[in-house]
């Protein structure tokens, strides 16, 4: 059993020394347990937070402990009712080939799912994040303007496409011409602005002639700086993530703008609500799965996946994810299906 354990807590960006590959025996299964073989491992931005012991909503991974992660696996052996050899499941086996499970937190996907890895993306955690954050906190009304950063990532791409289905004007923000073209040509956004280009703030203003009613926040930093002056009175901000800050080791230089920010929220009567998807909206999963399943099947929501072969590639692929090198949902193919 190969597994990546946390070797040291990264200062700033994780390095190749942050995780260490260890190999030990494939674990035995006791009564009321099953052995799972990982086929797909999800790479997600929240993993950076788990590498750190700063206070957060979830406990950190301890040094020497297997790195946590969402997985799609197949049942190798089982003494658990309802889980049979060969079945597909989605759960949290972490960065390893095999895991023993008592079934808690594991959801069956059946014997022959059409797209098993999609349970880590559009039909799973990122999809639920997009759907719940937009509908429950964004409270969209047809005709309003929605802006979303990380526009081609699994959350942002889904937010924008749901926005289109709900009749919004959707403007994406993404890094680079290729990602922006994808957002408009494939995902159907009305516009997409490249935050790495000169004149980004001006281009965002041109793309939002009637201001911004909903800003789905994935990114923070200079993207938020450009969004802030465009926010309309009574705008809503589902505060989902701040990926531009995850590797930061200190606050940025410059004047303290907290007073300005709070004053802006007050004068414009803006609602900002942070959320942690399973804690706040896990109970909505069945409703989400039904609605999203229908949209995906009807081709109304497109999904782009970036499959990378080999567990040994996971640390490099994760470092690249935080640098914006990914394009679509990053998944590691760990084992044969
Ligand atoms: P993504 O695949 O979108 O994240 C990677 C992308 O983030 C990159 O491709 C890059 O896109 C963008 N990015 C990276 N660094 C920067 C930067 N410095 N400035 C601007 N953009 C940057 O991830 P997900 O779709 O999985 O997640 C999106 C956000 O949602 C994350 O912040 C994540 O933490 C959050 N999240 C929150 C949840 C919750 O419960 N609150 C649950 C799930 C996700 P580009 O090249 O376009 O810049």
Automatic annotation (TrEMBL):
Residues 2-108 form the Oxidoreductase N-terminal domain. Residues 154-282 form the Alcohol dehydrogenase-like C-terminal domain. Keywords: Oxidoreductase. CDD domains: PGDH (cd05288). GO terms for molecular function: oxidoreductase activity, acting on the CH-CH group of donors, NAD or NADP as acceptor. The keyword Iron does not apply. Pfam families: ADH_N_2 (PF16884), ADH_zinc_N (PF00107). SUPFAM superfamilies: GroES-like, NAD(P)-binding Rossmann-fold domains. This is NADP-dependent oxidoreductase. It comes from Rhizobium glycinendophyticum.
């Amino acid at each position: 059993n190969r597994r990546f354990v946390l070797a040291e807590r990264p200062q700033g960006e994780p390095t190749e020394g942050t995780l260490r590959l260890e190999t030990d025996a494939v674990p035995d299964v006791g009564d009321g347990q099953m052995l799972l073989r990982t086929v797909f491992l999800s790479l997600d931005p929240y993993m950076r937070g788990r590498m750190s012991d700063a206070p957060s909503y979830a406990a950190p991974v301890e040094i020497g402990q297997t790195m946590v992660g969402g997985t799609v696996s197949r049942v190798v052996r089982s003494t658990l009712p309802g889980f049979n050899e060969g079945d597909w499941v989605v759960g949290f086996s972490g960065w390893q080939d095999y895991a023993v499970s008592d079934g808690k937190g594991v959801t069956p996907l059946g014997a022959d799912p059409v797209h098993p890895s999609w349970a880590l993306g559009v039909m799973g955690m990122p999809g639920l994040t997009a759907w719940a954050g937009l509908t429950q906190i964004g409270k969209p009304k047809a005709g309003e303007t929605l802006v979303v950063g990380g526009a081609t990532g699994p959350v942002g791409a889904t937010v924008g496409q749901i926005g289109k289905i709900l009749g919004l004007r959707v403007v994406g923000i993404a890094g680079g011409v290729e990602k922006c073209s994808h957002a408009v040509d494939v995902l159907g956004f009305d516009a997409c602005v490249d935050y790495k280009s000169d004149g980004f703030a001006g281009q965002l203003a041109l793309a939002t002639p009637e201001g911004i009613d909903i800003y789905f926040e994935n990114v923070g930093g200079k993207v938020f700086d450009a969004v802030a002056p465009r926010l309309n009175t009574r705008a809503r901000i589902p505060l989902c993530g701040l990926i531009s800050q995850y590797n930061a080791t200190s606050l940025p230089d410059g004047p303290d703008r907290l007073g300005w920010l709070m004053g802006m929220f007050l004068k414009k009567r803006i609602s900002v609500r942070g959320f942690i998807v399973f804690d706040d909206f896990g109970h909505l999963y069945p409703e989400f799965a039904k609605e999203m399943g229908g949209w995906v099947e009807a081709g109304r929501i497109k999904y782009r996946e970036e499959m990378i072969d080999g567990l040994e590639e996971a640390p490099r692929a994760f470092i690249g994810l935080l640098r914006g090198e990914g394009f679509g949902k990053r998944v590691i193919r760990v084992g044969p299906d």
